[in-house]
Amino acid sequence: MTISTAGEEARAFVPAPLPPNPPIDWTPELRCAFDQALLALGRLDSVSMLLPDTSLFLYMYVRKEAVLSSMIEGTQSSLSDLLLFELDEAPGVPLDDVREVSNYVAALDHGLHLLKEGLPLSLRLIREVHGVLLAKGRGSKLTPGEFRYSQNWIGGTRPGNAAFVPPPAGEVLECMSRLERFLNDLPEPTPVLLKAALAHVQFETIHPFLDGNGRVGRLLITLLLCEQRALREPMLYLSLYFKTHRRYYYELLNNVRETGDWEAWLGFFAEAVIVTATQAVETAQQLLALSNQDRDRIGTLGRAAPSALQIHRVLMEYPIATSNWLVEKTGLTPATVNKSLVNLQQLGIVRELTAQKRNRLFSYQDYVEIMNRGTELPD
Predict the structure, then answer these.
(1) Alpha carbon of 190 to those of 172, 197, 199, 358: distances in Å?
(2) Which is higher by pLDDT, 62 or 327?
(3) What pTM, to 2 d.p., does this model score?
């Protein structure tokens, strides 16, 4: 539709409600891709059941996703920056950037908490997640938790020269209400993976908020898979794949809007799930192998082993920590913690990041390196 804003006319796009009409053309190739994606998702879900303590792995998975999803929006914060920030030990890191990443972790946690309490994937849940995402930092003045009351656009300096102009503010609530109906299987049920793929594009097209749309749109995928019990734990995050294929990702979104080419997008989405789920399984297996190998090495310490194993377990969840923080988490005495850290350093498991006598900082280096893959900041 044609809109008039800022003294000029522009074309805004109002998406048709889901599911697509005409229906998806399920070629044998596309059907096969979705079958493979569902298998990959099933393997990932089963890995979460095999892990001895899923929470240890989830803590880092969620933070890795927060870093990657925020990177797509241009933040310059690394996984280590975030871990230091959460320890209140973040000298020299870009504070606004790392706060945005920390907000993302809180937003996902809040969304999962609401789902566990029985709230369906709804406009209320989406607005609450957005409110947490923009609660502090740069986006806090851009109406957190509220759909926009003004026109926005993507690319360009104004709507007239923008790459894409979402629906006018007056259409947002109606567009989002129709999306909410689709998410809740109205007018008809939709298989979960297809629903996630279609809903992501629809959300990004509506762009209902003044800021944070990309991050909420990516969170929506994970929240939907968890709500529909396709995953027991939030272990699938597509941000790395979207970041790696960023230009093609935006091209496919535009093609859906301009020509209705849902099939190319769905092929890409299925491949993203296959690649990402497979990588997540491999990462979990690598972390499990590392922790087992290191536990065996700690077992050689004799009487010093039990306290060192306690430190090791905490470092698997929080792989960058101060000695004081480890005292607090384990309940061990400062002397025992420091002796254990010396033992872990001698075994090559732990590395000291500081050379201070007080507030010394330690890293479970190999664990951090496995999790860091794909999150490296550009030079």
Answers:
(1) 23, 11, 11, 57
(2) 327
(3) 0.89
